[in-house]
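User: Predict the structure for this protein chain, please.
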Amino acid sequence: MSRPAGRRPRRLTRWWRRRSLRSRLTVIAATAIAVSVFMAFQVASELLDRELRDTAEEQLRADSRVLAATAQRAGPARVELPPYPGAGRLVRVILPDGSTRTPAGQPALPPVSEDARRVARGASADLMESDDSDEGYLIHTLRAGDGAVQVARVADDSPINQFGFGMLLIGLLCVAGGAVVGRTVARTGLAPIDRLTAAAVRVARTRDLDADIPDEGGGEIRRLIGSINDMLAALRDSRLAQRLLAEDAAHELKTPLTSLRLNVELLIRLDRRGTLDSALPAESRTRLLDDLGAQVAELSTLVAELTDLARGDVSDETTELLDLADVVGAAATRARSRVPDIELALDVTSVWVSGRPAALQRAVLNLIDNAGKWSPPDQPVQVRLRTEGGSAVLEVDDAGPGIDAADVPRVFDRFYRADSARALPGSGLGLSIVQRVVDAHGGRVTVARSARGGALLRVDLPATAAPTPVAHPAAGEDTGGR
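Assistant: Here is the predicted structure, written as structure tokens:
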């Protein structure tokens, strides 16, 4: 059974991919030099062969002219032909009747060709030809009197062979030298990458993100090292943020969990003693259960906000073109369902933005919840939405005491709560989530004092053009083709 034709190329490809970059560069350098030497040998051999042939032909023409001049004076049949000396040129005289004369002891030449006979008959002046025999004679025929003379020489390939052997040795030396040079260049050029790899392995093994990789080399290597150092810095910031989030979460969870545990332990202890009804009157028991419910609700809210904040961004939600007025209305509805006593005054206009509806609704809801905690019962939370320039402007203000100037720089920090807010419910994460959502939408959130003396939180988001309404055919209109 024959092997598939494509198996060997795939095997070579896999073998090549398994080689190291140094080995590849070495092979490429050696191959390039080998190909260059081969091409140079081919060109040089062709030029040398042409030059030797031209020289041989010129020598044959000169010898033919000398012999033809002698045969012209004495006649082809009577010209004197000295015995063959054993080496050198070969001569032959072609008589008018087609017969030939050669020196004594000279090796036999190939038969006279028809073209050479035409030269002897006067059809042409001379002829340079080569035969296809093993000796490879180069023969020049020249008209002389009523016949012709021929001077021949055996084609000598020894200079070409010697040249080829020399080029082979030079090529082998060049290939070996090219492999050494390629290996050295590869080792030198890849030294920064080796150090970069060692540094990356050290970071992965020790988990030490504080050790930057030394910036060395140039060009692509420097950019690569810079990118990896930027990545390490981002990882350091991410790990620091995770540690701070875990520490803050543990701190914030400790108080409600402690209170919840103490209340539950009190109930369990009294129940085991059988004195639950006598030790806790109905009013105290109701108050304790209300406290438990409030603490559970506070924990649930805190865990939900921690989960939302730990995601880091809101990019997993699909961005769509939406009317921010609908988002504000939905957030207001949710706020009223969560806090029935809250009073809202909405003044919104249709403003279209490109955003993530769930994230934006969560941000608006957090703004309303924050304002509802501060606003007096007889003063509504005012929510205004309008277009200002190229931005959608959302303002939420309350009639509460406002935010102290010392607290303004930290009002959007995670878990930060002003001293005046310690007694109020909340986790200190709501405004931090608002800022994260607004930043993810390319907007800006600021805090100021409202005209009513309370806090004014303003959100600016990039506005977009309203979508073009799709025209629908009127009832009964025929939309079919005729």
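The two ends are 66 Å apart (CA to CA).
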